Structures are given as C-alpha cells and as structure tokens.
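Q:
Got a chain?
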Amino acid sequence: MLRSALPTILNHLPARSVEAHCDGPCGVYDPASARVAAEAVLSMTKKLLSLSPPQANDPAAWASYNNTFSRYVAIKEEQAQETKKELLILWTDYFKPEHLEIFPDLHQTFWKAAKLCSACKVNIDQAKAEELMQAVEKVHHMFWKSKGRSDNWVTAS
C-alpha cells in the first residue's frame, strides 16, 4: 500500500530548480580554481625547463635531479588535469544556452582550453602553458561578464 502511495505523493510535490558545480545545490562557481591550477602548470613548466642535468657521473646528483624532475612533471600533469576539471565544470554546469547569445565563441573557447590542458600534460612547452593561462583568463572574463561584473584578472605569481 505504502509502496504505491509514495510515488503518487512525490509526483504531486513541486521540484525546485537548482544549479551547482557539483552534485550538491550550493550554486557556487568561480574560475579562480582553474586559474590557480593553470598557474601551477606554467610554474612547473618553467621550473622543468630551467633544470640542468648534472654534468658528472655522480649517482647522488643524478638521483636528486631525477627526483626533482619527476616531482615537477607529476605536479604539472596533476594541475593540468585539475585545470581541465574546473573548466569542464564551468562549461557543462554553469554556462547555459542563453550565454551563447552573449558569447558565441563559448564552446570554442572551452574546447580549446581543454585541449591546451592536454597539451600541457603531454609536453613541457612554455608557450602552451602560457596559452592555457590566456584561455583561462578569457574564461574568467566571460564568467564575470555573465554575472554582470568585471572582476580583475589577478595572478598569484
């Protein structure tokens, strides 16, 4: 009896519309987390490019170099993935079809940014990391314009 009554009751209750960046209805979105992760990608890329391998055949020096190199690569790849995750949340959860009227290049912007995240994972390329920062900055401006604000682009480094 209760089993058949419950769906009837639930069908008559109005459901509230909610929006969120996660599975909870907090409604909190901000491109800042994508910026911080993209900055880490750029920082680690610069650090990797400035590393110099040891000149001598010193096992301890090579172990230290390899340890530092692998840590920087791991951080760079982790942060590139985090940047992509944060961008995809904004793209798929925050931005709506009505935003396409204001930003006709919205899909292209996010698609390119996601591809740059992948390029930064696969390579040690400062130009790609800088392009990623530019793409995240463009997303930042689109996001705040969609909210009727013009928050400044500020980087930590």
Observations:
- Helices lie at 2-12, 32-50, 59-94, 99-102, 106-122, 126-146.
- Residues 28-146 form a domain with the Four Helix Bundle (Hemerythrin (Met), subunit A) fold (CATH 1.20.120.400).
- The mean pLDDT is 90.
- The longest helix spans residues 59-94.
